[in-house]
Amino acid sequence: MTTRSTRSPRRRTVVALAVVLAVLGGFIVRLVDIQVVNAQEHIADSMMAFDGERPLYGTRGAIVDETGQSLAGSILLYDGVLDPKNITLYEQPTKTRKAGFVRTAEDGTASNVVWAQASAEIGAVTGQTAEEIQAIVAAAIADNPDTQFVYLKRGLTTEQYRALADLGIPYLSFDAHPARTYPDGAVAGNLVGYMGTEGTALGGLEQSQDSCLTASNGKITYQKGKDGVVIPGTERRVDAVDGGTLQLTINRDLQWYLQQLIAEQVQDLGALSGNITVVEVKTGKIRAAAEYPTVDPNDVPASDVNDRGSRIFTNWFEPGSTFKALTAATLIDAGGQTPTSTVTAPWRETFPNGARVGDSFQHPSNRYTLTGVLIDSSNVGISKFAERVDTQTRYDYLKKFGIGDGSPIDFYGQLKGDLPTPDRWDNQSFYNIAFGQGVTTTVPELAGAYQAIANDGLRIPLSLVESCTKPDGTVVTPEQPAPTQVVRPETAVAVQQMLENVALQSSLAKSVAVPGYNIADKTGTGEKTDGNGRYKAGIYFTTMIGFAPAEDPQYVVVVTLDEPTRIKSSGANASAWQKAMTQVLKTFRVMPSTVGPTLLPKFG
């Protein structure tokens, strides 16, 4: 017989079982809803809520000079990040704590720091007002109340980062990333180039050598909870790869000195611009390429847009009388002439084909030697000598000297000179090209031609980049064209001696003399066109180029000035050339001359 007492436990068991089954049924229904009915929506929500990624920045490679001194490098800057949601949570007091976060001082005392105080402390470091910082957070919350990320300020320095970190503010964090810096400012800025605000290479070697310098960023991926805490064991890392180190042939100290020198000369002579280029004779390496005006890569907007490149590589000009040395080398090598061969030359001449040529000064009809033509820089004299070699031969030699071919240096925006082909030589240009008119060249082309003369006729292609050292230690050197024997060694030596006599016997002899050294040089005063095929009156591009020691040339120095006004002839370049060559010989410890100069006659 079933009693009431026995029925009660059974009934309670049935009820309890029913409740359990009902709850379980509810869970099953909810599970089906989550995993089947609305599965895609919940998957998307979970991915948005939990997946995270943080970049690992690779460091852009350094640019260094020939001795390893830094011309460009990378430093760490920091982006300050605030967590608006956590700021809101900290500002809400609870039963167990006041508003704000707790800060413990060195003496152990604790205090609550509210958002108003924290924002003021932050602003004292970043240069922002407390109101500006609070507005940043308020705007982020208005856009998304649950946001946990807003930039406080980007590009904070290491000093600012340390000062902010010492505040111990829990909702302030930092993302570190590399930034470009140029420790010597404008030194070699014309060559090095600069970076854009988004890390894009925008000029100079930064741009043309970007494949060497650029880094590959990595990343860390992870999962985190809605509170922003990373879930342990979910991190995956792809390491960044740093850029390579680009070593230049430039000597930083010499570059600095020559930049100061050319800046002084340009300003003193009222020129538009100027440059000084130094080439090592035996190697073709450019040891300095100084310009004014130029750019400081640390402050690009401070310079005019036209001054942010390198006129050495991106400008061309008529070389004027510097070309007479190339014509003389052609005459000796292919025309049977010698330094003492002669012509009779008045100061003005009208040739049988109707061409007219004049010298820059009046003189009687002189019986010049070929050397004398270079000493007095006689246009008429070199024109008469030029008749002794045919057009095609002269053109071929100028091409062998590298005129019209630019340089093998990979430099963004580099130009080539314009050497007319023989079919474009008319009656006038046949003579004019002999003294550097009606033809354009560039500083690298002209420097390369004189390097060949100084190097006993062997032209070694110029170079500006020594190597690129990859992060794994692999050293990559640029491919260079093969050297070219332009003229016979004895021809080159003869021209070296002729240019030595120019330095000794020309009107600028005292201005260019370098005590203790035999030197060789030549000036050039190139006319400038007005863009309509006519030359500007009294406007010139002046050049002085030469080498030392004359008996064993080690360095070529080129000085150019664009439109000097206080002295309009190439005499304007003499002071800068003398000072530059003196510093070059001192920098590289070139021994003084131990033999006297080889004297050659001016007249026959």
Automatic annotation (TrEMBL):
InterPro entries for the chain: Beta-lactam/transpept, Beta-lactam/transpept-like, PBP_dimer, PBP_dimer_sf, PCN-bd_Tpept
Q: Name one molecular function that GO assigns to this entry.
A: penicillin binding
Say where the protein is mainly found: membrane
Q: Where is the Penicillin-binding protein dimerisation domain?
A: 57-232
Q: Gene3D superfamilies given for it? A: 3.30.450.330, DD-peptidase/beta-lactamase superfamily (3.40.710.10), Penicillin-binding protein 2a (Domain 2) (3.90.1310.10)
The entry's localization annotation reads: Membrane
Instruction: Name all Penicillin-binding protein transpeptidase domain ranges.
Output: 276-574
| Coiled-coil features, chain-numbered ranges | none
Similarity section: Belongs to the transpeptidase family.
Protein name as annotated = Penicillin-binding protein 2
Q: What is the lineage of its organism?
A: Bacteria, Bacillati, Actinomycetota, Actinomycetes, Micrococcales
